[in-house]
Amino acid sequence: MDSPEYGMHAFLWYHPEVASRDLQIIRDAGFGWVKQNFGWRDIEPSKGLFDWSHTDWIVDTCAEVGLDLLVRVDHQPQWAGGNYPTNGPPDDYNDLGDFLYAVASRYRGRIRAYEVWNEPNLAKEWGGRRPRPIEYAPLLRIAYRRIKEADPDALVISAGLSPTGTDNQT
Question: Nearest CA to 73 among 147, 16, 135?
Fold first, then answer.
């Protein structure tokens, strides 16, 4: 990895006509990366049943434009529990591992990095429960192992934390 490398978060999911323009703007502004959320519930609505239509388009278009892709994976499906519909860790962390293995296998060498979850230090991102690092660490461990099994060259990034300034449950 060159240092420093910069990127921008984009929302590419539902409007390809705007997303194509946005990706070109990101590239033309001199950024080399784009970050996009891959909502687990949008891709695997039932265990083992995948809808790759949006993700295929995003991965292909980022490659065409010449941007490296960082995907943030969270938003568990209903079947995985985790106090759905809030964003929360699945009841069985291995379900997330299976999902990440499927994604990393499908896009081996095409998704450069994976961010595992979002802001797990906030209750609203951790199933409405008080966040506990001792719960996030095993999730990250399983995610790392399964991504690396499928794509050894992929980067695995721990979830970004939100600055809160408090030690409460929000």
Answer: 147
Q: Residue 116 is which amino acid?
A: V
Q: What is the DSSP string of 119-166?
A: -TTSGGGTTTSPP-HHHHHHHHHHHHHHHHHH-TT-EEEEPPPPP-SS
What backbone phi and psi angles, to 5 degrees, belong to 9? Answer: -80, 140
Which segments within 30-116 are labelled E, that is strand?
33-39, 68-74, 113-116
pTM: 0.93
State the residue for tokens 């690396």. 148
Output the CA torsion 56→62→66→70 (10° steps): -110
Measured CA angle at 100 (ends 96, 104), to 5 deg: 175
Average pLDDT of span 126-153: 96
Report the C-alpha gap between 125 and 130 in whole angstroms. 10
167 pLDDT tier (thresholds 50, 70, 90): low
Q: How far is residue 53's CA from residue 114's CA, in Å, rounded to a whole number? A: 19
